[in-house]
Specification:
The chain is α/β, with parallel strands linked by helices and 311 residues long. It has one domain: Aldolase class I (TIM Barrel, Alpha-Beta Barrel), CATH 3.20.20.70. Helix content is 49%, strand content 15%. It is built from 12 helices and 10 strands. The strands form 2 sheets. An 8-stranded parallel barrel has the order 1-2-3-4-5-8-9-10, surrounded by 10 helices. Helix 3 packs across helix 4, helix 7 packs across helix 8 and helix 11 runs antiparallel to helix 12. The longest helix is centred in the C-terminal third of the chain and has 24 residues. It is globular and about 60 Å long. It binds glyceraldehyde-3-phosphate, 1,3-dihydroxyacetonephosphate and zinc ion (ZN).
Length: 311
């Protein structure tokens, strides 16, 4: 099976009350860990690439690694641009083999966001590629851009219908209280999501797939592993799994996870090197890191996303 778009995946996920995991990929071991978990559990996957990932690993390397994962697993896998911030980067990914792109116009005003999103949709649809837009603004760090909690804003449900109708997007990322990175809530703060906004969006856009960014749970086991092995991470709080599970049964069809991959990989490598200070073969520490990613993704598939056996 070749790379797929998100269209059919989302139709099935919406009807089935589950979500697809969209995992950020930056190198071979991350791709292998995620897709080996997907294969064992027969789960559809979205592998997403940020501008930073393209800069780090090179567009062609990432496309070819993802194509290799498709051959090795036989799974329906979509290759998606995460947080495209211009028509040009979206076009470059569409021309370069991606099957899905995000145009993130959330930093623009409503009309400018519609204009750039519509332009991307026209080009993408002419090339058989699906498009995710964004309305509302998440807090946290994306690439080098740090959005403070004060500058973040919840999605206004009154705008979603007009945005979707005028742009023609295939899915929409909304802001309901999730945020990017490992520090989503302040120490002592109780994690909360605005399910009332999600419900309102769902009622205004029946059957339409919604996307949650910033949806890592910041798994304590890995934060502790980092700090037990020389790390200095301050208290890090993520999105509770039961909230993500609930969102997945609603209109949310795509749940974005990057920070949990980073934590699993870094925690495992720190632990390995602390326990084996004389080792210097990268394969020795990347192997358990890949296994940790596989285990973490398998946990998400079965306990959070609910997409086991849905490939
Ligand atoms: O939302 C951002 C993703 O975690 C990607 O992060 O831009 O540092 O690759 P990055
Ligand atoms: P996390 O930082 O919560 O993993 O979010 C990742 C994300 O939204 C990528 O677009
Ligand atoms: Zn994001």
């Amino acid at each position: 099976m070749p790379l797929v778009t998100t269209k059919e995946m989302f139709e099935k996920a919406y009807k089935g009350g589950y979500a697809i995991g969209a995992f950020n990929v930056n190198n071979m071991e991350i791709i292998q860990g995620i897709t080996e978990a997907g294969k064992e559990l027969n789960a559809p996957l979205i592998l997403q690439v940020s501008a930073g990932a393209r800069k780090y690993a090179n567009h062609t390397y990432l496309v070819k690694l993802v194509e290799a994962a498709v051959i090795e697993t036989g799974l329906p896998i979509a290759l998606h641009l995460d947080h495209g911030d211009s028509f040009e980067i979206c076009k470059s990914c569409i021309d370069g083999g991606f099957t899905s792109v995000m145009i993130d116009g959330s930093h623009y005003d409503f009309e400018e966001n519609i204009a750039v999103t519509k332009k991307v949709v026209e080009y993408a649809h002419a090339h058989g590629v699906t498009v995710e837009g964004e309305l509302g603004r998440l807090a946290g760090i994306e690439d080098a851009v740090n959005v403070s909690a004060e500058d973040a804003s919840y999605t206004n449900p009154a705008q979603v219908q007009e945005f979707v109708e005028r742009t023609g997007v295939d899915s929409l990322a909304i802001a309901i209280g999730t945020s990017h990175g490992a520090y989503k809530f302040k120490p002592g703060q109780k994690p909360q999501l605005r399910f009332d906004i999600l419900e309102e969006v769902e009622s205004r856009l029946p059957g339409f797939p919604i996307v949650l960014h910033g949806a890592s749970s910041v798994i304590p086991e890995y934060v502790e592993m980092i700090n037990a092995n020389g790390g200095r991470m301050p208290d890090a709080i993520g999105i509770p799994e039961d909230m993500l599970r609930k969102a997945a049964t609603m209109a949310v069809c795509k749940i974005n996870i990057d920070s949990d991959l980073r934590l699993a990989m870094t925690g495992t490598i720190r632990k390995y090197l602390a326990e084996n200070p004389a080792h210097f073969d990268p394969r020795q520490y990347l192997k358990p890191a890949r296994e940790a990613i596989k285990g973490m993704v398998a946990h998400k598939i079965t306990n959070v996303l609910g997409c086991e056996g849905k490939a």
